[in-house]
């Protein structure tokens, strides 16, 4: 199994935790028989939206699924479920990874957006998945095996929705021991539901005889087989048990004894007072094994899956590999899990029997066996299985230790796994490990009231400062206090306490704490390109943003840290909106410089987008386009899939200024799924909508623009998104003006100024250009002549905006002169400076460059300082970045 080969605990968390062996049915063991009566029904399955296989364990469901898989000829996806798959997000991630096998590229297209949406609106995430899956007309099966293991009502409800909207090219097959909690009457009435139960799966007399003769190799068993089919009511597992009993010369079962039926298997022995025949036969089969084999079976029964090495560890027998092969050869309820024949599990019936026997006769060994399995899995780099066995074996201290080590990996994606473990670990064990307890608090931060969390953090900090002194190393105590400070900032962030957030982050750096990966958790669900619009609690309000972003950025400016870039982008956006463009460049450059060092997409994209927007506002749209292309080239394939729509929207916004009609026509030629409009949208998705509206206004599709504008504006008002409300108002005023309704346009502008004035919005208005300037001049005239009433907008604000329009023309002129000056600087580089700079871009040190030219490192550094001065750069990374932007490299 692929996940067993993981070396250590490194790598992408999806590859780290998604168990790929669960994405395919185990290969069928040798003692299976194809039954054309059932396998031929594949033609009906591929015509049905949903097929249900509902029958008890050992009824032949897996065999039938295997035959349908062969018929599907590679066009099938599968998820083998178990009791661990109770978290709804985890459940759907498995389905997405399964569908990737029949819908290539689906993971890359859907996964990042799905995870972001699911936390907010699961239904919108499911629609996103369904829409992508529907893009192919190739028919495919999606098999969910052992669905009875799922008990969460949320999953059942979401599956109901999923089934109802399933595209016609996907045919869902659900295999379960019980009827799932779905309402399927509509499907049944429409003829879209196919169901097979125990009655259809049961062996006929002819099939039973064939099974005994050809599979169990009992050539003269036709008369016995006929009786066995009757006695077992065609139940496959019961038939096999009777055949095994005959093979092992167990006393024949008298016809007067109860039926060996699945109903009897499911009966509660404590209530009936009698063992069912299946248990009787299983015990007889077990007792006929050698003492060595019995030890092997009992001690390995605690493992969900096993290979020869694990069997050796659990059984203590060097002969474990041979015993494993013997079980496989004798058809003794051993199920292969891979095509290579390395991993196995016991049949559910046999596994349950063995565990009961182990508990009844060797209960004292169970915890030790789980401990052995856990240690083995931990050493093999399979932490999830290791923690499970530690917990099952009541080795809670080891479970806590391993969970503490793995927290950084789990928190980057597997929140459900963390929560499951914390739910079963005693809280006193968690609290005894301050670092683990902080992990727990980090996990429940979104659920715990702010005041209660602050109280918990206060108590924890007291424990660390007082009780741990002298018990742990000083650097450990310092680290724990450092993380507490981060958590206080995180709680402030979650509760929109921007003042508290800035206080704790400033306090953090004041205490000289180093940068930490924990800062990346604080925006794990806020991967958007514009902080001012999207940051929790800011939402476009400039004064809130300036107080928060400004305080943090100014204090962290000198640090090459995640915080510096993250909040620096936000502060740069504030300065740009306030029309302090050249001051904004300072913070944008610093944010970009740090982002290039850290190389995290959630920093790189916003920093580059900010730089591109500033260049656009300075009248250099071509430079903006270069920056957006540059950041895309820096992204990994996975990140590129996530960010590409956003970067394309920013490029389109620039394109509408450079070649309006052509760009608008191209934008509107791309279809948009209308279904997403009813779901929660990110600020980046809203920005994409606004770009389409701009395009529609340019090509005079006024009805479409008006309808979309109304929808986006209502949405922005409901979520109190100020920037979007202002942008909607500006576009509405332009739209009305173009349609020949100047009075209505003035009214729309008035509403927008009422929103933007108190916050000091300037650049969003000025960037709309000449048409907006004329509307603003007309508005000023009407206010002065009292042709329209005083709406509360301060006249000084209107004059400030008109002055900004005038100043904008001058800035653009200075920008052109600046570009000429930069060209002159480029020409002014001496030949030696050019050569040294070329080596800088290759990453060579001053010492290496000095050796290349036969000069001293001090002379090299002098040349480098001159290059920095001519390029206006503050570091080597910054200089290379400027050179790339200007096409020097």
Molecular structure report:
- The protein is mainly alpha-helical.
- Among the domains are: about 35-200, Rossmann fold (3-Layer(aba) Sandwich), CATH 3.40.50; about 205-285, no CATH class; about 290-395, Arc Repressor Mutant, subunit A, CATH 1.10.10; about 405-495, no CATH class; about 720-810, no CATH class; about 830-885, Winged helix-like DNA-binding domain superfamily/Winged helix DNA-binding domain (Arc Repressor Mutant, subunit A, Orthogonal Bundle).
- The strands form two sheets. A five-stranded parallel β-sheet has the order 2-3-4-1-5, with helices on both faces. Strands 6-7 form a two-stranded antiparallel sheet.
- α8 links the parallel β3 and β4.
- α11 (about 205-215) crosses α12.
- The radius of gyration is 34 Å and the shape is globular.
- Residues about 1-15, about 250-260, about 265-275, about 675-680 and about 815-825 have low confidence and may be disordered.
Task: Please name the defining characteristics of this protein.
65% helix; two-stranded antiparallel ribbon; 5-stranded parallel sheet; single chain; globular; mainly alpha; Arc Repressor Mutant, subunit A; 889 residues; Rossmann fold; 47 helices
Q: What is the overall shape?
A: globular
Main beta sheet: 5 strands, parallel
Please give the CATH architecture of the domain at 36-198: 3-Layer(aba) Sandwich
Distance between the termini: 47 Å
Helix content: 55-70%
Q: Which oligomeric state applies?
A: single chain
CATH hierarchy, class of the domain at 36-198? Alpha Beta
Binned strand content: under 5%
Number of helices, where a helix is a run of at least 4 consecutive DSSP H or I residues: 47
Number of strands: 7
Structural class: mainly alpha
CATH superfamily of the domain at 36-198: P-loop containing nucleotide triphosphate hydrolases
CATH topology of the domain at 36-198, which one? Answer: Rossmann fold
| Average predicted local confidence, pLDDT | 83
Lateral arrangement of strands in the main beta sheet = 2-3-4-1-5
Low-confidence stretches: 1-13, 250-259, 264-275, 673-678, 816-827
How much is the radius of gyration in Å?
A: 34 Å
């Amino acid at each position: 199994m692929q996940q067993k080969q993981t070396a250590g605990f490194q790598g992408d968390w999806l590859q780290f935790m998604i168990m790929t062996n669960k994405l395919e049915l185990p290969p069928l063991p040798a003692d299976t028989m194809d039954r054309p009566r059932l396998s031929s029904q594949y033609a009906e399955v591929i015509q049905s939206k949903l097929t249900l296989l509902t029958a008890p364990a050992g009824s032949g469901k897996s065999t039938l699924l295997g035959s349908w898989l062969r018929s599907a000829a590679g066009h099938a996806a599968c998820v083998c479920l178990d009791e661990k798959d109770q978290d709804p997000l985890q459940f759907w991630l498995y389905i997405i990874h399964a569908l990737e096998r029949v819908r290539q590229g689906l993971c890359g297209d859907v996964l990042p957006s799905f995870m972001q949406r699911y936390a907010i609106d699961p239904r919108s995430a499911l629609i996103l998945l369904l829409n992508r899956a529907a893009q192919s007309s190739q028919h495919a099966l999606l098999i969910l095996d052992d669905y009875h293991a799922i008990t969460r009502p949320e999953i059942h409800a979401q599956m109901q929705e999923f089934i109802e909207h399933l595209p016609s090219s996907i045919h869902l097959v659900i295999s379960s021991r019980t009827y799932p909690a779905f309402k399927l009457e509509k499907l049944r009435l429409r003829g879209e539901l196919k169901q097979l139960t125990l009655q259809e799966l049961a062996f006929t007399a002819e099939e039973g005889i064939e099974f005994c003769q050809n599979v169990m190799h009992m050539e003269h068993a036709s008369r016995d087989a006929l009786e066995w089919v009757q006695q077992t009511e065609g139940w496959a597992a019961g038939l096999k048990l009777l055949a095994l009993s005959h093979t092992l010369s167990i006393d024949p079962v008298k016809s007067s004894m109860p039926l060996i039926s699945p109903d009897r298997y499911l009966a509660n022995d404590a209530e009936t007072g009698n063992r069912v025949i299946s248990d009787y036969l299983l015990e007889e089969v077990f007792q006929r094994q050698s003492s060595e084999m019995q030890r092997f079976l009992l001690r390995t029964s605690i493992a969900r899956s096993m290979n020869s090495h694990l069997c050796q560890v659990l059984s203590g027998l060097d002969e474990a590999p041979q015993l494993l092969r013997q079980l496989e050869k004798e058809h003794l309820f051993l199920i292969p899990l891979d095509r290579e024949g390395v991993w196995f599990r016991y049949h559910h019936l046999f596994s349950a029997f063995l565990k009961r026997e182990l508990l009844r006769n060797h209960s004292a060994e169970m915890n030790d066996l789980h401990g052995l399995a856990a240690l083995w899995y931990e050493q093999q780099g399979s932490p999830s299985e290791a923690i499970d066995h530690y917990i099952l074996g009541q080795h809670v201290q080891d479970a806590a230790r391993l969970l503490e080590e793995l927290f950084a990996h789990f928190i980057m994606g597997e929140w459900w796994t963390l929560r499951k473990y914390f739910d079963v670990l005693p809280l006193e064990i968690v609290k005894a490990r301050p670092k683990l307890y902080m992990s727990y608090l980090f996990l429940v931060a979104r659920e715990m009231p702010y005041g209660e969390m602050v109280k918990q953090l206060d108590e924890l900090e007291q424990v660390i400062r007082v009780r741990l002194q002298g018990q742990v190393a000083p650097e450990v105590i310092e680290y724990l206090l450092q993380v507490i400070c981060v958590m206080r900032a995180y709680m402030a962030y979650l509760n929109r306490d921007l003042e508290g957030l800035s206080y704790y982050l400033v306090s953090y750096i004041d205490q000289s704490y180093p940068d930490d990966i924990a800062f990346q958790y604080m925006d794990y669900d806020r991967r958007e390109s514009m902080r001012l619009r999207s940051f929790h609690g800011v939402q476009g309000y400039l004064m809130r943003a300036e107080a928060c972003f400004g305080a943090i950025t100014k204090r962290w400016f000198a640090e090459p840290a995640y915080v510096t870039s993250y909040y620096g982008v936000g502060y740069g956006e504030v300065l740009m909106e306030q029309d302090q463009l050249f001051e904004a460049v300072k913070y944008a450059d610093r944010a970009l410089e740090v982002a290039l060092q850290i190389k995290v997409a959630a920093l790189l994209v916003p920093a580059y987008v900010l730089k591109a927007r500033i260049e656009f506002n300075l009248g250099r749209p071509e430079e903006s386009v270069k920056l957006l292309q540059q950041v895309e080239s820096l992204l990994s394939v996975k990140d590129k899939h996530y960010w590409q729509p956003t970067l394309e929207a920013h490029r389109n916004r620039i394109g509408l200024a450079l070649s309006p009609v052509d760009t608008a026509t191209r934008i509107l030629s791309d279809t948009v799924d209308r279904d997403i409009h009813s779901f929660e949208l990110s600020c980046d998705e809203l920005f994409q909508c606004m770009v389409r509206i701009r395009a529609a206004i340019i090509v005079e599709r006024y009805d479409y623009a008006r309808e979309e504008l109304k929808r986006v504006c209502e949405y922005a008002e409901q979520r109190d998104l100020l920037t979007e409300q202002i942008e909607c108002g500006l576009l509405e005023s332009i739209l009305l003006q173009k349609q020949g309704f100047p009075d209505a346009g003035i009214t729309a502008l008035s509403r927008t100024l009422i929103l933007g004035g108190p916050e000091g919005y300037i650049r969003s208005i000025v960037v709309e250009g000449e048409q907006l300037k004329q509307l603003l001049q007309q508005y000023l005239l009407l206010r002065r002549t009292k042709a329209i009433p005083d709406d509360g907008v301060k006249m000084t604000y209107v004059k400030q905006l008109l002055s900004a329009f005038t100043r904008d023309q001058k800035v653009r002129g200075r920008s052109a002169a600046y570009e000429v000056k930069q060209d002159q600087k480029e020409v002014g580089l001496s030949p030696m400076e050019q050569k040294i700079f070329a080596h800088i871009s290759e990453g060579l040190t001053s010492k290496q460059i000095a050796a290349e030219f036969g000069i001293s490192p001090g002379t090299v550094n002098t040349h480098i300082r001159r290059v920095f001065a001519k390029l206006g750069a503050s570091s080597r990374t910054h200089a290379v970045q400027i050179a790339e932007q200007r096409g020097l490299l």
